[in-house]
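Dear support,

We are seeing what looks like truncated structure output for some complexes. This example has two components. We would appreciate it if you could run it in full and send us the complete C-alpha cell output so we can diff it against ours.
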Amino acid sequence: MIAWLRSGFSSRRSRHGLWAVPLVIVLVLVVVLTFGTDQFASRENLFNLVAKAMPLLIAAIGQLFVVLVGGLDLSVGSVISFSTAVLSLDGPVILLLPAVFVLAVAVGLINGLVITRLNVHPIIATLAMQYILLGITRILRPVSGGEVPAIVINAVQGNFLGVPLPLFWGLFAVGLAAKILYGSRYGLHLFAIGGGVAAGMEDAARNYGIRVERNIVLAYVACSLFAALAGVFLAGRIVSGDPNVGLLFELDAITAVAIGGTQLSGGVGSLHGTVLGAFILVLLANGMNLANVSPFIQTAIKGGLLLAIVGLQSRKKMGL
Amino acid sequence: MANFLSHPLLRRLAAVPPAYYVFGLLLLILWLARPNMLNPNVLGIFIRQVVPLGILVLGQLLVMRVKSIDLSGGGIILLINYLITSRTFPEASGQDFIMMALVIGGSVGLLNGYMIAKRRVSAVIVTLAISIILVGFVQFLSSGKPPGDVPKYMNNIFNISFGAIPLPVLFWVACAGLMWVVMQQSVYGRFVEAAGENAEAAAFSGVPVERTVLMAHVLAGLIAAVAAIVQTGSIAVGSVRVGLDLPILAVAATILGGVVFGRGEGGVWGPFFGVLSFAMLFVVMTVFGIGDPGKLIAQGLIILLAAILYGRRSGRI
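Here is the complete output from our reference environment:
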C-alpha cells in the first residue's frame, strides 16, 4: 500500500505515472474550498460541479486510450460538436442515437487506419480530421439550434434516488474504461505498445506477438466513441445542437490527461490520474468563481499548473 | 497499388513537396474559371493577408525539423498585439515596440527550449501550456475588452507597395531567403538536419543536440515576435482573439510544404508555397462562393492527402 502510494509521486518507478501529486492537489482544493467559501460544500454546487465535469471527464478518458499508445487525438472537439449536430437533426431517436456512435466508430477507424496503415503522424492525421469534421458539422448546423430527443435530455438532467443522473454517466464511463484498461488483455496490450514506443523500441510489442496496428486502431475508435458519448451528454445539457460546443475541447482533454500524470510519450499513465486531472480543472474553475477570482486569470493558472506538473516528469528522450 | 506507386517516375514525382502541386492546381483552376482574377494587384492583396502566417511558418519548420513543435506562437502574437494596441506604453516608439516584441518572443522561446531540450518535457504540452498562460494573461490585463487602435504608422508601413508588390510580401520573401541561407550555408543548419534525422547518431558525431533544439525554439520565438508585429500592422483595431489559430495553420502549411517531424526535404520554399497554397485556396473558395465549412473541409482533405502521399514515400514520419 505504502509502496504503491510512493510510486504515485515518481514518474520513474511506476507504469501509472505521477498520479499522487494530482490527488494531493484535489484534496487541498477540496479542503480549501470547503472551509474557505460558504457555497462550495452545498448540495447544489456539488451537483453542478459533477454535471460540469462529466463531458470533460468522458472526453479525457477517451484521449487517455490514444495517449497510452503514444498517440494524440486532436479531432475530439470536432467529434463532440458533430455528435450534438447529428443528434439535433430531424428524425426518430431510435435512428439518431445509434447513428452518432456508428459515425464516431467511422471517424475513429479513419483516424486509426490513416495513422497505422498510411504512416501519417497522429497529430497531422487527427488535425486534418478536425478540420473536415468541423466543416461537415457547420454544414449540418451552421448556428446552434434544433431539438434534442427528449429521452437524451431526461437522461442528463434528471435524478435517480436523489442522485443526479450525470454522476451515473461518469461512473459508467469510468467503469467501462477500468474494465478495458485493467480488466482485459487489450488494456495490457495498450500499455505494452506505448511502453515500447516511449523506449524507442517500436517493435517490442510486436515481437511479443501483440497485434500492434489493430490495437492502435481500436484505441482511436475508443477515443472517438468516448468523445461521442461526451457529445450526447452535452447535447442533453444544452438542449440543442451546437457547432461550436466542442471547440478546443481536445486541448482541455489533453490537459486533463497530462495533469493526471500520464506521459504523452506513451505507456505510462492511469485512469485514476485522468479522473483526478479532469476534476482539478473543474475544481479550479468552480473554486475561483466562488472566490471571485477573475475568470481571465483562471486560464493563466490552469496553464501554469499544467507546465509545473509536466515539468516534474522528465523523460529520457526529447520530443513531442 | 503498391507496385504502381513504387514506379521510379512516380517516386520522383512524389518527392516534390505537395505544396507545389496544390499551388499549381489552384492556379490552374483560377485561370480556367476567372482569368481576370489572375492579375498581380488582386493576388498581391490576397497574399498580403497570409504574410503573418508565412513568417510564423519559418519558425515552425525549424522546430519541426528537429522533431519538436511550437504551439505557443498564438500566445506570443496575442500578447504583443495587446501591448502595442492597448496604449499600456503611451510613450513607446516603433523601435521600442520592436525591441519589446523580440524580448518577449526570445524569452518565451528560451523557456520552451529549456523545458523541451534540457528537461525533456513533451513539446506539445509545454508550448500548449505557455500559450494558455499567455492567453489568460492577456485576458486578465484586458478584462476581455478589445484594446485600442493600432498606431497609424504601422498600418501605413503595412500598406506600402512597390507597383503591384506589397512591402509585407517582399519582407516575407526576404525573411524566407534569410532562413534558406541559414539552413543551407551555416553550420547550425547542418546541426538542425543531423539532430532531426537521428538525434542519437548526431550526438555521437559531436553535434550539440540539446543546444541545437534549444536554439531552434529561441529562433521560433523571435520569428513569432516578428510575425506578431506584421499581424498587428495588418489590422486597424487590436483584438483579444487575434492569431490564436495561426500555430495550427502553420503546422498544416509546413506539412503541406514537405517538412514533417524530423525530415525536411521541403526545405524552406516548400512550406513557403504551403502558405501560398492556403492563400490561393482562399481566393478560389471566394471566387466560387464556397463558405467557411467548405474551406475547412478542403483544408483538411489537402493536409490529409499531402501527408498520406508523403508518408508513403518517407516511411514512418
